[in-house]
Specification:
alpha/beta, TIM Barrel, eight-stranded parallel sheet, 8 helices, binds D-xylitol-5-phosphate, binds zinc ion
Length: 215
């Protein structure tokens, strides 16, 4: 059974409380929150005030995906806002080891996201320190894009490595996931699925989450 992490980027922000209530009553495991700075990615989303409000609306873990430059400047603020997991981008962090230690020292689970062009092998010397690897299956910055099929190969290579090393690292996959392609993504070795558009544009999101959960 995969971990299901609805991405609030796809929700109706005028009805944030209702959207949180829907996720709360569903079988979803985590809330996925996409923070974009307009520099690392060509889009701006939301920051700490929204995360703090979602924190008030749920007891489920908040999985915060930082698509920002210099994430170390804000790690403590995201902890204060209520983040449980903090995921930084490999491509934004020349001092990745330091960033990961900082996140762990703040008491959060630490993750690294990799863009579609970044080989999973680049994580070899940090993998044992990571709670989560987030494989981007679209180019980060926008919801509603199409799943890049090459991601399946990356997932299976990483899963094999994690199993060989007997690590507990969670492989999370983010972007373009639907009920139709989710089985192949899980089959390739993913533990956690981030899903925005498919869930929040569904006429019956609670039921869709149930179907995803029981693949
Ligand atoms: C994209 C974000 C994703 C996005 C996924 O940059 O990281 O979390 O919300 O949305 P869908 O499911 O619409 O691809
Ligand atoms: Zn994301």
């Amino acid at each position: 059974m995969a971990i299901i992490a609805p991405s609030l980027l796809g929700c109706n922000f005028l009805k944030l409380q209702d959207e949180c209530d829907m996720v709360n009553k569903s079988e979803a495991d985590w809330f996925h929150l996409d923070v974009m700075d307009g520099c690392f990615v060509p889009n701006i989303s939301f920051g700490m005030p929204i995360i703090a409000k979602v924190r008030e609306a749920t007891t489920k873990p908040l999985d915060v995906h930082l698509m920002i430059e210099e994430p170390g400047r804000y790690a403590a603020d995201f902890k204060l806002a209520g983040a449980d997991h903090l995921i930084v981008h490999y491509e934004a962090c020349p001092h990745l080891h330091r960033n990961i230690q900082q996140i762990k020292n703040l008491g959060m689970k630490a993750g690294v996201a990799i863009n579609p062009h970044t080989p999973v092998q680049f994580l070899q010397d940090i993998l044992h320190d990571l709670d989560i690897v987030l494989i981007m299956s679209v180019n980060p910055g926008f919801g509603g894009q199409e799943f890049i099929d090459h991601s399946l190969l990356k997932i299976s290579i990483l899963r094999q490595r994690i199993d060989e090393m007997e690590l507990k690292t969670i492989i999370e996959v983010d972007g373009g996931i639907t009920l139709a392609n989710a089985p192949a993504i899980i089959e390739a070795g993913a533990h956690s699925l981030v899903i925005g558009t498919s869930i929040f544009k569904s006429p019956d999101p609670v039921n869709l989450i149930k179907q995803l959960k029981h693949i």
